[in-house]
Amino acid sequence: MDGGPRQRGSPGPPTNPNTESSSVALKKEIGLISACCIIVGNIIGSGIFVSPKGVLENASSVGLALIIWIITGIITAIGALCYAELGVTIPKSGGDYSYVKDIFGGLAGFLRLWIALLVIYPTNQAVIALTFSNYVLQPLFPSCLPPDSGIRLLAAVCLLLLTWVNCSSVRWATRVQDFFTAGKLLALGLIIIMGIVQICKGQFYWLEPVHAFEPFQEYDMGRIALAFLQGSFAYGGWNFLNYVTEELIDPYKNLPRAIFISIPLVTFVYVLANVAYVTAMSPNELLASNAVAVIFGEKLLGVVSWIMPISVALSTFGGVNGSLFTSSRLFFVGAREGHLPRLLAMIHVNRFTPIPALLFTCISTLLMLCTSDMYTLINYVGFINYLFYGVTVAGQIVLRIKQPDLYRPIKVSLAWPVIYLLFWAFLLIFSLYSEPMVCCIGLAIMLTGVPVYFAGVYWENKPKNFISFVAKMTRLGQKLCLVVYPAEDKRRDDEENREEADEKL
Predict the structure, then answer these.
(1) Are the C-beta atoms of 177 and 41 separated by less than 8 Å?
(2) pLDDT (tens digit, 9 = 90+) per residue, 6-35?
(3) Are 49 and 135 in contact (CB under 8 A)?
(4) Can you tell me the mean pLDDT for 124-151?
(5) Distances in Å between the alpha carbon of 151 and those of 58, 140, 230, 297?
(6) pLDDT (tens digit, 9 = 90+) per residue, 249-289?
(7) In 10 A of CB 406, how many CB atoms?
(8) 91-105, 142-156, 376-390, range with the lowest pLDDT
(9) Mean pLDDT of 123-152
(10) How far is 119 from 386, CA to CA, in rounded Å?
């Protein structure tokens, strides 16, 4: 947005030949195991420990809530299949932003980036960090809820620490992700095992069909749609690997493999975890708690119940790390395409990490911590996320029509995007009917990006004073963060500057 998307005549980026070389670029350091950990680690963040309450509350019965968890997992797998084809057909980092921009044009891509910038990723990271704080502080306040100020302060500390880790090293960030993904699977494994033990003891009252489908309030299609939105939040992150395609080793093989391994694993774990919850808790108990796993642990683990909040805290800590890692790459790619300030497209000269993009996503998330109302935030994220998921999957069909001969290493049946879009339409229509204010506010926030796009990106002939001011601020940011453009962007800028010089001659 610094005066248009790399227009001719604008001042090129400041460079230092002594520090910048062809080796300054994001490195391919993400293998298959780390790729699976990114997907699993981003999906299993806070959702499975927060969303069970929201899903059950809107589903109105235990049985329907479990069905919603299963269907949401199946729909997530279908969406992941569609994204797998797009990811190897358009092998760029940036995920659905890159796909929407390439298929539907700059404005559509910018709106995806804009809403991600303002709402989706700051909110997602804020919810996970707040959940981390809730579970860490809950044992310290056994007779009351932890203070909101303490919850937000600890969430901020978590964000700042993990931003520092991600700024320091890609390898450190992926190792943190690997370790905490294993930890969160162990935490959920403990929940599932305890649930199986409960079933073996005959504690399955709420799983019997006659009781499972007994509604505690009247069924309502609008509320059921909101239950799907709450469930989809728990599955959120399934597309995050597409944001780091350029850092993935052998993406044509490892991207689809990681998706095929991770999504079924997460669905299996989520369904069994929700089954385990209702073997120890009644619907009323579950709805009354903001820390479901803690209450579950207190009921079944006795003196070692402290294991559960620690395990959940580890899980959500890893979720914040994974979200910071991937969302910063989205902003990095957006800046590289000229849709965000160009400083965000720079990386550290020695560490090869996108420090400005990481700092940006950290600051925007810290601002989101001003509220602790997680369930309202989840509704905002769920609606807007599904809106763009549908647009992206529709783009897959459009691309098939426009470019039928384009090389596609993976080519799925068109039945899958059609099924996904039918479910998508159901979800959005009934969500709009049930929560019109939340949905309309989300749409209004998205549409504020239209004038920003035309003023910041589309308008090329900006005043020279403005261009000069932005260039000075960019140089200041470079000096503070010790960052330069990746090698490929540097070469492109040099070519544009040479063309401009030739024209003047």
Answers:
(1) yes
(2) 433 333 343 443 344 445 555 666 778 888
(3) yes
(4) 81
(5) 26, 12, 22, 21
(6) 887 788 788 888 888 888 888 889 889 888 888 888 888 77
(7) 11
(8) 376-390
(9) 81
(10) 13
Using alpha carbons, select from 276, 266, 226, 246 the residue that is nearest to residue 66.
276
Nearest one of 299, 44, 320, 47 to 189, comparing CA atoms: 44
Question: How far apart (Å, rounded) are the C-alpha atoms in residues 151 and 167?
Answer: 25
Cα separation values, 141 from 137, 151, 301, Å: 7, 12, 18
* pTM for this model (two decimals): 0.74
pLDDT band at 395 (very low <50, low <70, confident <90, very high): very high
Q: What's 32-447's CATH class? A: mainly alpha
Which residues are registered as beta bridge partners of 484? 347
Residue 347, φ and ψ in degrees, nearest 5? -130, 160
Q: For residues 5 and 152, which has the higher predicted lDDT (pLDDT)?
A: 152
pLDDT of residue 6: 43
Kindly give the residue spans of alpha helices, DSSP state H, lying in 351-463.
355-368, 374-402, 415-434, 436-447, 449-453
Average pLDDT across the chain, whole number:
79
CA distances 389 to 81, 238, 439, 501, Å, are 12, 11, 15, 43
- In the numeric block, which tokens belong to residue 377? 């935030």
- Max distance between CA atoms of the chain, in angstroms, equals 87
What span, in angstroms and rounded, lies between the C-alpha atoms of 277 and 22?
Answer: 53
- Which has the closest alpha carbon to 406: 179, 168, 89? 89
Question: CB of 485 within 8 A of CB of 20?
Answer: yes
Q: What are phi and psi of 314, to 5 degrees?
A: -60, -40
**SS3 assignment, position 248:** strand
Helices (H), 201-249: 209-212, 221-235
Is pLDDT of 2 > 80?
A: no
Residues 319-358 have pLDDT tens digits of 888 888 877 878 888 888 888 888 888 888 888 888 898 8
Question: Residue 53: how many CA atoms within 13 Å on its side-chain side?
Answer: 19
DSSP assignment string, 434-465 = H-HHHHHHHHHHHHTHHHHHIIIII-----HH
Place of tokens 């099924």: 419
Grouping H, G, I as helix, E, B as strand and the rest as coil, residue 215 is: coil
Torsion angle, alpha carbons of 281, 284, 290, 292, to 10? 10
Tell me, what amino acid is at 163? Answer: T
CA atoms of 482 and 348, how far apart (whole Å): 6
* Strand partners of residue 347: 484
Domain residue ranges in the chain: 32-447
Beta bridge partners of 483: 348
Work out the end-to-end distance of the chain between its first and last CA atoms, rounded to an integer number of angstroms.
Answer: 28
Q: What are the residues facing 30 on neighbouring strands?
A: 248
